[in-house]
Queue: 2 jobs
Job 1
Amino acid sequence: MKRLSERQMALLQLLADGAFHSGEQIGERLGISRAAVSQQLKGLRQLGLEIFSVSGRGHALARPLELLDQSYLQQQAGTAPVHCVAVVDSTNDYMMGHLAEWRKGECLLAESQTAGRGRRGRQWVSPFAGQMILSLYWRLEQGLGAAMGLSLVVGVALAETLEAEGYGQIGLKWPNDLYAGGQKLAGILVEMSAIAGGSCHIVIGVGLNLAMTLQQGNTISQPWCALESIAPGRRVQRNRLIAIFIRNLRQALERFEQQGLAPFIERWDHFDIYRDQAVELLLGDERLRGIVRGIDGQGGLLLEGETGIRTYVGGEISLRPVDENINI
Ligand code: ATP
């Protein structure tokens, strides 16, 4: 896990407006020589930041950035500690590796990840300052069994947050992905570990694209989008949005703990992009076709096939659309 040095942070804050700053001006502000400025810029480029250097004008970021503001987030979403770091391999890995340290609702946010993950170890691309990369720790006293359906609750909390903020075309794909206009906007990864005595640790990871260049996203193996591109001309207020989501997520988790999935089923249906549509389920090597008929009380997928409606549950199942009409 890495925090930026004070100098790197000061330089980033200076460049965050996206305007050009001369080497001389930067040197003066940071109290360092021109050669040291070049070194600091090199360090920022190594984090994956795109910085233009133009002779006669100076240095500018390819786009303005809103860096994570720990004191704002702590103040706005602070019923439990909120930590912000610059670079981490994966916020979920870090939280899972230090389970005994967290309080319920505690959050870890990163500007970027070097080994962000989706399900089954698939890569999650997380460029510097372009996302909400959040892991939140939760503890369920009722144990692993009571956690069924939890990733759906997280999806509903995120989709409702974005819809309430005025973003359109938000949809959910069972069990853990958020789309906008058919392109992937966010991923959710819930990981758990049982505790002796019956309760369990839960780490909820969410990666939400806020702004990402085509180059930064060029290794992503499916159509994707970022909030900035679905609402052109509107500036995403990164810290504000993160604070609202953390509050909404904690509230949703408390409700889920008290009432289970029941209060979320209709809300899931509202966002379900494949409801009443033909899909294929991938279960290892097996492929099953049917029509999506919603979710059951535990968050299992209801799929109507030749023999009627059956429920499918489990972290290893993937859902894919199929084009042709299915006769059942
Ligand atoms: P499923 O969850 O249905 O099995 P999935 O392909 O969406 O399918 P996940 O494990 O949820 O799998 O997410 C990982 C996938 O998300 C990657 O394989 C890649 O296709 C995509 N991806 C990676 N980074 C990003 C990103 N920043 N934005 C959008 N999509 C991404």
Job 2
Amino acid sequence: MKTQVGIIGAGPAGLVLAQLLAQQGVESVVLEDRSRTYVEARIRAGILEQSTVDVLTEAGVGDRVHREGLRHDGIHLQWPGHREHLDFSALCGRSVWAYGQTEVVKDLINARLATGHPLHFEVSDVALHDVETNRPRITYTDRDGVAQTLECLVIAGCDGSHGPSRDLIPSTVRHTWERTYPFAWLGILADVPPSTDELIYAWHPDGFALHSMRSPTVSRLYLQVRPDEDITSWSDDRIWSQLAHRLDLDGWQLHTGPILEKSVLPMRSFVNTPMRHGNLFLAGDAAHIVPPTGAKGLNLAVSDVALLARALADLVVKKDGARADAYSENALRRVWRATHFSWWMTSMLHTTGDDFDAQLQLSQLRYVATSRAAAASLAENYTGMPISDDGAGWSGSDPDHT
Ligand code: APR
Ligand code: PHB
């Protein structure tokens, strides 16, 4: 079999890339080792930046997010006795959308299957070959157990944090940066309407808590816990009472309901460079991981492939390699900004057990809540850097700045 772009992984990165390429007349084959049911049910992030919604719209899969996504024009920052609202539209003229990654993935799979272009689930033994040549190949076993070879012009490694693509970059050129945090999140999905209009990010001496949501009837909430936390020691009652305690505010009440899912998420920052080696291009979690505090993981995956789709279309259709040559550097500029922002949010909001740290965190929270400049900086980063391949940042995003 032959294709122009072999895409490994049917997460948001691989699926959005496939859509954007198809629109530009570039052929691709998507290979995924899990089943469709598994991929569609995997519960992950749920906040989309405006530019992510724009890319989904451009990719032809924006209808449902526009219809069902919940637009958020700000967040609440909380610490004991205080809940302060940051108004993103006033601060930077941008918004975010609450819409689950599960729904994004369902929309993308439906769109891909509707085009009739290949998307193969339940493949195994995926291996990459000759990525430094003009004839890279992917070998794999299909779901019927038949060995297959896919000859490509380029390979897109969109295979997440545990996929094989990254390891094809030789150690002589590859560099990785990593930070593991001394805490994790216990996340729940609950069948109860959100108790808040906007997300609440709460600092508390007993640990961070976050109230998020997926729809007008489903809430998503998180608690800071130890990295080795045993989830079996968290009964539903214990989870709700800790959430109520850490999110407590006079005159406000947390509504509780049946817990549909609970899990512990490790927290890690990780960046792999370069994001291109020969004719292998990495995108999304295959190249970088962020802690969930700034809700950047899904958005970075989408912005990577927005840049990559343009670069690959130029390369494959026009035989112009300029954008492909610049891909790694351009993508990494956004990656490092998001890596810094999610590290900063994480550092401001999670208790470490150290009193000095706690005083610095509270001072930072008061500063963000009272200084327009500090609040605007959070708002700009939270709503996301515009996607551009010429390095342009946020210029012009301030509604008061003409
Ligand atoms: N062969 C084929 N597919 C693979 C292989 C393999 N050897 N290894 C991994 N995959 C698949 C995974 O099963 C997964 O479906 O690659 C896909 C990668 O998808 P994601 O992990 O969702 O990564 P990405 O598309 O980069 O999206 C990043 O997902 O992890 C969240 O928080 C993260 O929101 C962010 C987003
Ligand atoms: C989520 O809804 O899953 C979510 C929201 C905001 C975050 C992280 C996760 O910062």
